[in-house]
Each structure stands twice: as structure tokens, then as C-alpha cells.
Amino acid sequence: MTRDLVAGTLTCNYRTNSGVGVNGSSYTVSLHRPEQASVVSDFRYNVVRPDWSCQVYAQCTTQSDADGMRHTVETKITVNGEPYWRKSWATRVPRLGW
Hints:
By secondary structure, the chain is mostly beta strands.
């Protein structure tokens, strides 16, 4: 946990082995405007064989503010260190009921 007195935020970071890969996340919230928050999470899965290797990487980011929420995803696969496949997408939804 980290409190940034200048930015007025509180952040919690963690990294853990999760199943077959490694998951890391960072949660940040504004102490003065709690509707401003974000979660950034990533996951890495590595497969290594004597003559072949593959890495799957995914990152998700969710951010909120007074107007709504945005979610973005990026996924990449590399084979033997070279790009093999990549896709990203995003969506936004308005905040309702305020």
C-alpha cells in the first residue's frame, strides 16, 4: 500500500503466482474524489521447451471518473520471442444514477 500525499491517492500493488502464470495488479483511488479510481491488471504465462518458447500476455485496465467507466484489454502472444498474435479492444459506459 502506498499513499501519495501530493497526488492525494492510495494505491495497492500485488503480484502473485496464479495457476500456470503470474498475475499482477495495481488499484488506485483518489482520496478526495473516490469516483476517480483505476485497476490495472496483467497476466503472463510462459511455456519453454528445448527448441521452442511461447509467452501469453494480457493486460486489462479499468478506469472510472464522474462521467463513467472505461475498460481496455490488450493481449499478445509471442513465439520464440517474435510477435505471433495481438488484439486489443476497449469499451466505455456512462455512469448512471448520480
